[in-house]
Structures
1.
Amino acid sequence: MPTGTTDQGVHPSEAPGVAREPLVLNNRSFSWITERICGIVENRQPLGWWFLFIPSAILAGCLIFTLVYLVSTGVGIWGMNHPVAWGWDIVNFVFWIGIGHAGTLISAILFLTRQKWRTSVNRASEAMTLFAVMCAGIFPGFHVGRFWMVWFLAPVPNSNAIWQNFKSPLLWDVFAVSTYFTVSVIFWYIGLIPDLATLRDRARTKFRKLAYGFFALGWRGGNRQWQHYEMAYLLLAALSTPLVLSVHSVVSFDFATSVVPGWHTTIFPPYFVAGAIFGGFAMVLTLMLPCRLIYGLQDLITMKHIDNMAKIILLTGTIVGYAYIMELFISYYSANKYETDAFHLRILSGPYTWAYYCMFFCNVIAPQVFWFEKARKNLWIVFIIANFVNAGMWFERFVIIPTSVSVDFLPGQWGLYSPTWVEKLMFAGSFGLFMSLFLIFLRFLPVIAIAEVKGVLPQADPHYHDWKKLREGRRSK
Amino acid sequence: MAGLKNADHYAQGEKFSPGLLKWVLLMGGAGAAVLFFIIASASGEQFRGAMAYSWLFALIYFLSLTVGGIFWTLLHHASNSGWGIVIRRLMENLGSVVIVIFVLALPLLAPGFRDALWEWFPERAKIKAEAVEHAEHELAARRAQLTENLKAAETSLLAMEKENAAALAKATEGEKVYLNAELAAAKGRLETAKAALGSDEEIKEQLKYEHFKHSNVLLYKKKGYLNEAFWHFRFFFYGAALFGIIYFLRHWSIKSDETGDPKFFRRMRRAACGFLPLFATAWTFLVFDWLMALDYAWFSTMWGVYLFAGAALNSMAFLIILVTLLRRAGYLKEVITMEHYHLMGKLLLAFTIFWAYIAFSQFFLIWYANITEETKFYLTRNTDFWNPYSIAFLVIGHFFVPFTILLIQGFKKKPTVICAIAGWTLLMHFFDVYWIIIPERGPSLTHGESLIIPGAVWTDLLAWISVAGLFGFGLMHFLGKGSLYPCRDPRLDESLNVVN
């Protein structure tokens, strides 16, 4: 028997650091979980919800205003100029698309790798994914200039003799993002069905019963239904997994297939995917930390969940740091004049050097505090670091996109870029839209997957009694 | 499954006795290696150079398997996993063989091998020798020129002082500023000229640098990284870092076999997280130094990830085969179940996809952007017979075949099927590593005259057999020490009863 102070008298399998922490605290029962989660939808929203929703809705209104102004005036009201044809609009697009990665990663990849802790956060992060992708879609959609012509991107028969350029990664992006969005919606919706049925069965008004009943597709929770459901869920998870990788890989192709130093480097696809997961998890934490407090979900979204997400942020942040360092190293090692100059401008003497250091600090240095358990257990620190990451990932796209082209091969066309108030307001407005949609989601749909959380309770394990017997047998020895 | 397996009943572990096999592998491997080096020393310079590539090929093949073993050990701890405890010792043992590979890598330090592989060594040596000669030769002329420059600077300053003295007297304030600045500049030029006219040694040093820069600007710019001293330091750093990581993890793991103290478990987890950045650094720069620098002009930021993907995939394939062989020999029958096979099969599938994703992205971005200094790597490999080779082995063999088969769930639970795929993957890894290294050989050694060195394919196989034998010996050695699975690991329960 071990003789350590904390391990004294405990079987090694139950020692601290070895025993698995429970995913639902305080031995909550099945009915408590249903009550607590459905309660959010069924009861009046707390004051905090309104405090967040009203300004969000106003901001979303600003987005609509700027879009109307843009369409009625033209993209000239943005600050883009000759060398920098991609400014904040594309930065924001990549930023939001990146955020839209954590949801499907949590729901698909963590499902395939049997990470049970995903159940407490997957629903909300999938919703976040959808809203983020919606926000992302706005920017390139309006960037094309004549928004009403955006359907030209789709390869449908038309009488204008338009043939899409299939050689262009920009077109692949249209397909990648729309496929991702479609599959994510289906995946999210399939996951919602059993919970919608729960809400239907608890509904006290006729309208609620009808509305939830319509979307629950006649779910009765029978054995055969569950069997089909589980299989559909598994297949969709398998289908979504390559999509998580493909979307941001294709986004990275938008830049990396070019010959612009700072855009073209081979590590871009996995680096973008890691960055997207990084930024996505930061946004999940930003949303879920207040959410669990406002709705009292501490027993479901436990410190263990937050700890895991903080560790993923540390890991992916360090992978992103690896990519930054590879880029810097190869820009030196390549001895290529343009490559070296581009990175020299980025880190030493360029007009946007400050942005590079903001990015590096927020994405690589700041998350390193998550090496310490104390930091991961302090919600303020977790929240602050998550927001550093949100900012850092925006800066990363800013560093890559406009700064690389502002100073390129022809000195005659160098030019700096700064956004106009319209771009700034649009970006703020996209946050408003995102937050409004998320708050509406909280209001009407179960924020945690009720059926799935129940599945990871210890008493749901078919071997629950065997494990109990094993442990009790050991203790009595 | 009725009831659960109680880890307490498995605490005695299983001892593996390699028996005669260990010595057969040693004798076979060592015999082949001796033959290899006899041939190498008896061959002419070009063929010996070709054999250096053979040796590097064999080393990288087995090094990637061992490095994969280290990776899986690290990952298992860092991700707080439980499923693979019963396989973890095999990962640790596989990883430990890295020391054998590093000992076998020592011949790469011999100039006959080293210079044939990495042209920058002889190139630098040549330039350095020329530079010394150049400096000797040019010294007198340069000194004369510098003296003349100094004189000219002095004369011009004197003249300017005289002229300006007159001008200053009647100058306005603005003109004065200008005239004084002019004077200061002339003084500065004089100082520079004085500084340039240093001792003979200083002038020679300057001449050498200029010569280096003019002879090979790439190597000149890369001299901070590609230089002999730093390269040798890195060579030993990689060995120490990689072996150090797995040495400690295996050491604690074996210690915990004796007492079952959970403190080792916690220590391994903590250490593994800390080791991950070190591991990534060591492996990335190792493959930069040994493989990317086979052509010092070429570069790719993805290179480290690409080699990592192959290493992780194939060491998993190797582990699957190792588990099966051990089970056939009567070991681990109780502890490793079809569930473990299924899990390993899923990881094999995941990494088959990951390898293809990385390999494709690297190829695709270079192909699409079509920048000369990057495309040269693929130009060699996508022309002549290397083109059908790439398509057959890398595109179809390495990806489509295992990917399609591994998608089927049932196959991952059948040891014979999953072993066949694992064996296939290992064969494709052979072709992948071959494809990375060997296309450089012909053009490098014959200065672009020929794509291949006739007969060298046999030394490739001989090298592979030598390293395989000694790798096998190392593996048997480590397997024979300690239990085959961490028998008192505090999470053994979880691994024994894993269901997925």
Note: Chain B has a mean pLDDT of 93.
2.
Amino acid sequence: MKEETVTDAALRQFLLGDVDDEERQRIESLFVTDAQARERILTAEQDLVEDYLEDSLTAADKERFLDLYGSTSAQRQKLRITKSIKDWAAGEQKAAAAGSSVSSFWGRLTARLGLKPMFVIPIAATALIAIVIALVWLNSRTGERNRQAAFNQELARLNEPERLRETPAGLILLTLRPGSVRGVGAQQELVKAADTQIVELRLVWNQKEHYPGYRAIIRRVGSNESLTLPPLHADNDGNTIRLRISAHVLTRGVYQVELSGTGADGSTGPTEEYQFTVSG
Amino acid sequence: MVRDSAIPPESFDEILAWLNADRDVAANLYVQLRDDLTKIFNWNRCSDPEGLTDEAFDRVARKVHELRKTFEGDPRLFFYGVARNLIRENPKKVKTQVSLENMDLPANPVSETEAENANLLEECLHTCLQKLSGDKRELILNYYAKEKQAKIRHRTEMAQRLGTSVETLRVRVYRIRATLEQCIERCLDRASRGKQ
């Protein structure tokens, strides 16, 4: 069959009965004598049937199609058979897609990387372990962040100006003077009792300059952990800065406090240092 | 079409010999030519395409002894010429168009018989699919996986994966589907005869 003489469009017209007698006889002659032409016409017919079953034909072509392919019971049976094959294929594909939605990622990955199945299982297991470890780590990090957030909220609440005026049960006071770290003077000791709930530190400010705000950081000596207090304010005389923390935060050991003045523009002034020991 | 003749054995042998010297090849050509003529009668909207095909072979059989000596060229063209004469003689079949909506499709069985036929078709389909090799079943499955616009790209990619052209892929699928459809038709035919 000379390909240039019969296009796909011409074949479709022929199959829908929309050609003149001369063209019809030419194509039919090729159909019976040329094996290649025969297969090409039959595959074109296959495509036409498929388009009909997918409802992709124009109204006019659909009418022509039914006139030629759907008017006898035998023809309708052929259409039903073709439809059943298409439906089976579509159903199998849907079932396969639903069943492999989880594994499709691995399928694509192995296909892309050209991995053999024997390597896939160890890689998948390793990846799964890594994911579990990451989740545990993230969970612990999240837990730690949550604990820290709760602790900061508690600190902020304890150091609210109106609360600082109250004297709750279980409160003990400890006044600290600067310079204890350097061994100037006796180190103050905090002895916690069983009912001690809140510790109030009264930090004496010896600097001449007074500041609208102060920032305090508490560290346990020998530990990397530190505790930053919310913005603090001096008492009325301007020489004492009070801060409160929960007693359970302070365990046995030596603690160091850094207190800095903070200007109205956010600038940091001089720093005083304090030290105390927790026992009991 | 009412017919009262059959091809005599000696004429049948002469037709085969005329189609090809190799009797096996000739037998295949004979079967294919019958199918082709039936299809041509169908394309020309003739009533009783199978009956007309029989008639075409009968007419050739009556002249085959002379034709083998006188006709030059592909004998299949002579059969086609006879078929064309029959098409001219035969009135076009009455238009009995049935729309898809009115067709008793397996997906929408409306009566017990239709439901039974739908089940039978499904059984035959699965029986015949089992007769296909795994590769062929997979090919058919993938080929018909997509519809409408999506199928064009899908089949192009499929042909590339198989290292062939879309045209060759179409022909390959056509052959598998033709085998499958023939198997289903035979299965349905056996089942309907079994019920009688």
Note: The two ends of chain A are 105 Å apart (CA to CA).
